[in-house]
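Morning F.,

Quick status update on the modeling queue. The single chain you submitted on Monday has been processed. Sequence for confirmation:
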Amino acid sequence: MHKVAVIGMGYSGAILVERLKSLTPALQVDVYDHAGSTGSGQAYQRDNLSNLVNRPASLMYLREYGDFKEWLRQSPVPSIKTYQPRPVFGNFIEETLKSSLRSHSAIQYHRESVIGITNEQGGYTLKTASGKCIAYNAVVLATGNSEPADLYRLKGIERYINNPFPTTNLVDIRSGSIGVLGNQLSAIDVALTLLDAHPDNHVTMLTRTSKIPNYSEHYHPRPLKVLTESNLKQRLLGTDSVLKTVQAMFDEELGAHCIKVKIEALMRDHTQASVAREAIYSVFSSTNLIVPIIWNHLSERERKIFVRRYRNAWRQLRVPIPKENWSKIHQYIQLGRLACKTGLVDISFDENQFVARGRDFQDAFSDLVNATGAGDVMESSLYKKLTTSGMCIQHQYGGIDVCFDDCRVINKKGPTNIFAIGAPTVGVFYAVSNIDVLQLQAEIIYKNLSSLSA
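C-alpha cells below.
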C-alpha cells in the first residue's frame, strides 16, 4: 500500500481529499491539520455571518458545480441569497468532508502540526510536533494562507491584532479611534464587525494606494470568444510584447460581448464597470484559468512591469464585493463612523497609541487591526526549514517554486514527489485565491497521485 500525506485541511486540502478518496484503499491518505479544521480553514471558519463570500453561491462548490446550492436548498432554512456568508459555505464543506472521512477508513485525520520533512530512501519522512516520524511516498502541501505580514513590526504591542480572524474575537473592542490596515475583502469584514458590534465605534481604514472595491450584484461565467487557451497560446507565440497582446485580446473579448469600455479604462477607474456591471464581471470570472497561463508567458522584464504598473489596478478591478456589504460600508461613511484614507507611509507606537502617518494626514488610534490579507507562506517555520534544508526553493514572486504543469515542488535537483496547492504556488500561478484555480490544481495533483494506486 502506498501512502500520501496531505498537510493542511482548509478548502484546498478538502477538494484534494475528496478526489483521493476514489483511490482508496489501494492508497492510504493521512491528513494533518494543526488547527483541527475539516475543510473550512481560515477563509470559511465559524465567524460572523456578515462576512460574505465575494462569489455567487451558484459558483461555490466542493465536488462539482451546483453541490453547494443543492445543499442550501435542502437545509432546514433554505436561502436564495446570491452571496452567502463564509461560515455557511464552511459548514457545507465540513459536513460533506466528515461524511467522506467516516466512510473511507484509508483516510486518517491527525490534528497535529508538521514541523519538518526529510527525503529518505526515495520517499519522505514527516516529523510532527509530538515527535512522530512517519514515512510517505508523496506529500501534498495544502497549508493555506499565512497571517498578514507585520509590515510595521507591531506584534506584541497591546491592542494590536495582526491576525483578525475569526472576526468574532474583535467584538469586545470599543473605541472611537480604531485603525484598520487595508480596505479590501478582509478589511471590509473587519470594519463591518467592529461597526456593527458597538454604536460608539469609529473606524479608519488605512492603505497606501488602494480604493474601496467595486461591487457586483450577480454574474454568470460566459463562454470566452477571444481569450480561449488555444487562441491565447497562438497569439502569444513569438510576440514581442505579451502585455500589449493580452491587453488587445481583453479589449476584443469585451467587444465581443458588446461591452463598450476598454480594459485600460477599467483598471484606471474600476467604477466604470457600472456601464455593464453584470456582463463585465461575467466575462472576468471566465478568465480565472487564463490568468495563470498569461503570467507564465510573461518574460521576466514584463512581469516586473506588470507588478510595478498594473498589479494593484488589476486586483482592484478583478475582486468586487457583494453589493450588500458595499452599501453598508458607504452607509457608515455617510454616518461619519467610517473613514478611508490612502497614502499611508508609516505606523509607530508612541505614548500608548498607534500613530499613522500619511502623505497628508497624521492620526492616532487606541486599537489597530491588520487586515491586509494573506502574507507569504515563506514566513512560516515549516517553509523556512524546507528552504534551508534544500527541499524547496523560494520563488521571487512569493511562495515556492513548482512546476506549472503538474504542481510538483522543485528543489535544486529538480522536480520532486512533493506537490503544492494554493498559497504556496502563488509565484508560479499568480492567481490562487479563486476556487477555479484551486480546483484545477487539485485535479492535476490527483491525476499524478493516481499512479501510486495503480
